[in-house]
Specification:
alpha/beta, six-stranded mixed β-sheet, globular
Length: 701
């Protein structure tokens, strides 16, 4: 029977009332955080205002308890097995009667006519010099203390042939052993291998003894535990009630994933991330939908959440620039209300922690990475505690920071990293940690990362090579079979997809061609995707290799100027003429590429030192360049032809570049690298690359 919801387990604490008084509500003013506090102080205030005890106990049928948390110890009421059970097909015997038995000098026993199949209670008993046929799982008869396996015996009796001949169809020999009644004293069992007392027998209670505690309170039930519960006949199980978590998305810019996209809008990814994170923690998410910037509607939805759920989460904010509407509404709570608003974290500074009559109310930042980090830092422990789970110790690994990182003094920073094996030539293989570096607004950063490094609030610079402790985002770390670091390309996306289909786990880190080449020189990757032009020779990639690297030929990519079709500054011109025309035009804005990329080197060479408007804007991919031009944030940039075609942009070709792979010689014959090399040579793969717009027949250098 499901217990009724418990009454609030909290008595208001007056020491928290002051926070609401010093944070006055002013709906039409833009406010800064008035009292940004450290992470530890925020945690203390939040937990002091909560009663972090498990919720109600409920009895749940066994077939519905997977993933639930035990509310009390489980004590077995029966023995498992409940009787002395045979582990083999064979014969129940007295072990002493088999002593000395060998192939050359077997022992002969009298075979009784009772056959012990599963579920049969023996009627007779085994006396000295006797044996009784028994099947796997059969109950051991009185007098027997061991089981001789059938392959170490042979039956000898005069009636076997008579029995078989009287049957309408011949019986296999194994059936004459176990199914055909043989008159007592006329069947003999020849034993060719001795057994010791207890051999082949699972005695009653050897697995589980009656009165034994088999599962402990606080255990989260998996299939392993539910099997134990079934084995002891537990039809219902006492478990803690699962915390219900109400999720409210806020903001005029937020739309549901099934709605059409328009400029200025954002799909609501946070609600999905948070709901599934709640499920992973054993809670029950309850979506209360999207609330636009309407204080009355938000207030109504908040109180609906407080009535229906144990925890209330709000995500996102106002798009009107009139302040944080969520915090204005939450500030109206008073028992005790807001306990912290603004925490010295990166990402996650805007988080707001509140409590209303014992129920946590948390406003998570709108950016996905900030939201999920602060959720796991502040909310996840609360859900686990309310659901009766013990606090967990996160898994960690040691690594070496691959590149220098600048942090912000005064804020604890969570740096998301990808982990790759270090140089294979090292005495002990080290892990290298690469910052993911897409910012708190990225949806993919968290999903692609292996873990994060915590940088203390008093650290401003963490040098490359520094030993760091990485907290894993999962329970364990599974390194990729093929690690690719360097420049992004949609052709590479296709190739890595093919590798995944063939059973290889892959990881790609986009750090630019130069960063990939350096990673290959350090032995931190299997492949470095690159398209670097050597100014001295005019060749791509090969002149830049060191003696410990091999070059794996890739494919050609046509680069050029991208622009919106119809722009007369570019139409019917060559790429170089168009650049010369617009590079000094203050009304013609370019979009650049990031330092270290092969395209950036080409751009700087074409511009010859000039920096047109927009030069400082440096996205990290061809697709981002095309998006900036297509959306009118820039008028031109340089990208590859297939990306321009996908975006519907005009394209003025500059020339073909080689996108190749630098491979550390020590990794050349690794199975995943060999498979990738073979993949590049397959006709079907080359045909698909051609279809995508790449040249697999030649690469100009």
């Amino acid at each position: 029977m499901v217990a009724e919801a418990a009454t609030p387990r909290y008595s208001p604490n007056p020491k928290f009332q002051i926070i609401n008084r010093i944070l006055p509500a002013s709906p039409m003013s833009q406010r800064q955080f008035l009292n940004v506090i450290g992470r530890d102080e925020a945690q203390r205030r939040f937990r002091d205002a909560l009663c972090l005890k498990p919720l109600d106990v409920e009895d749940v049928p066994l077939d519905a308890v997977l993933g639930r948390v035990l509310a009390c110890d489980v004590v077995a009421q029966i023995n498992v097995p409940s009787f002395d059970r045979s582990n083999y097909d064979g014969y129940a015997v007295r072990a002493a009667d088999t002593y000395g038995a060998q192939e050359e000098s077997p022992r002969t026993l009298v075979l009784l006519n009772e056959v012990l199949s599963t579920g049969i209670v023996p009627q007779g008993q085994v006396g000295p010099g006797q044996a009784m046929a028994i099947a796997t799982g059969g109950m051991l008869p009185r007098g027997a203390d061991a089981v001789v396996m059938v392959e170490h015996t042979d039956e000898v009796f005069s009636h076997r042939l008579e029995a078989v001949s009287s049957s309408s169809a011949p019986l296999p020999e194994d059936q004459t052993r176990f199914a055909w009644p043989i008159p007592e004293e006329k069947a003999k069992l020849v034993v060719t291998k001795a057994v010791t007392p207890g051999f082949g027998v699972a005695f009653a209670g050897t697995d589980i003894a009656a009165g034994e505690t088999v599962l402990r309170r606080g255990t989260r039930l998996t299939s392993r535990e539910t099997g134990v519960l079934a084995a002891i006949g537990q039809a219902t199980v006492a478990v803690w009630r699962q915390p219900t978590v109400a999720i409210i998305s806020t903001g005029d810019e937020i739309i549901a994933p099934d709605q059409p996209m328009h400029p200025g809008l954002v799909y609501d990814s946070n609600a999905r991330i948070l709901a599934d994170a709640v499920l992973e923690l054993g809670g029950i998410p309850r979506s209360l939908g999207i609330v636009h910037d309407d204080a009355t509607q938000l207030r109504q939805r908040l109180h609906e959440g407080l009535e229906a759920a144990d925890v209330v989460l709000l995500s996102g904010g106002s798009s009107k620039g009139a302040g944080d509407l969520s915090s204005q509404v939450v500030r109206e709570l008073s028992e005790p209300g807001i306990v912290a608003h603004g925490v010295a974290l990166k990402p996650g500074k805007p988080i707001c922690l509140a409590v209303e009559r014992g129920k946590p109310v948390v406003i998570l930042p709108g950016f996905p990475t900030s939201a999920i980090f602060t959720f796991h830092e502040f909310v996840a422990p609360v859900i686990r505690a309310l659901g009766g789970q013990a606090e967990t110790t996160p898994a960690t690994v040691d690594a070496r920071l691959a590149v220098k990182v600048n942090s912000e003094i005064g804020r604890t920073e969570y740096l998301l990293v990808g982990l790759v094996p270090g140089p294979q030539s090292a005495a002990s293989e080290q892990l290298a940690a690469y910052p993911m570096g897409k910012g708190s607004g990225s949806v993919t950063t968290f999903s692609a990362a292996d873990g994060f490094v915590t940088i203390a609030q008093n650290e401003e610079i963490v040098e490359a090579g520094t030993r760091v402790r990485v907290q894993l985002l999962g329970d364990s770390l599974r390194l990729a079979d093929l690690v690719v670091i360097g420049s992004h390309c949609i052709g590479l996306d296709y190739l890595l997809g093919q590798m995944q289909e063939r059973g290889f786990r892959t990881k790609f880190l986009a750090v630019g061609s130069s960063g990939g080449l350096q990673a290959a020189r350090r032995g931190e990757c299997d492949l470095a995707g690159m398209h670097l032009l050597d100014p001295a020779t005019g060749q791509y990639n090969r002149p830049l290799l060191t003696a410990d690297l091999e070059l794996l030929d890739g494919y050609g990519r046509l680069q050029g100027v991208v622009f919106r079709r119809g722009d007369e500054r570019f139409e019917k011109r060559t790429a170089t003429d168009a650049i010369a025309l617009v590079e000094d035009d203050p009304d013609c804005v370019m979009v650049n590429r990031n330092q270290g990329s092969g395209t950036r080197i080409l751009i700087d060479r074409l511009l010859g030192g000039t920096q047109p408007p927009g030069y400082a804007v440096q996205p990290k991919s061809h697709n981002a360049v095309a998006a900036a031009v297509a959306q009118g944030r820039a008028d031109w940039g340089i990208a590859i032809s297939c990306v321009a075609e996908q975006a519907g942009l005009g394209f003025l070709p500059l020339g073909e570049e080689c996108y190749d792979f630098a491979v550390p010689k020590l990794r050349w014959n690794r199975p995943a690298v060999v498979a990738f090399r073979q993949l590049l040579c397959e006709p079907d793969v080359r045909e698909e690359l051609e279809r995508l717009g790449f040249n697999t027949r030649s690469c100009l250098g």
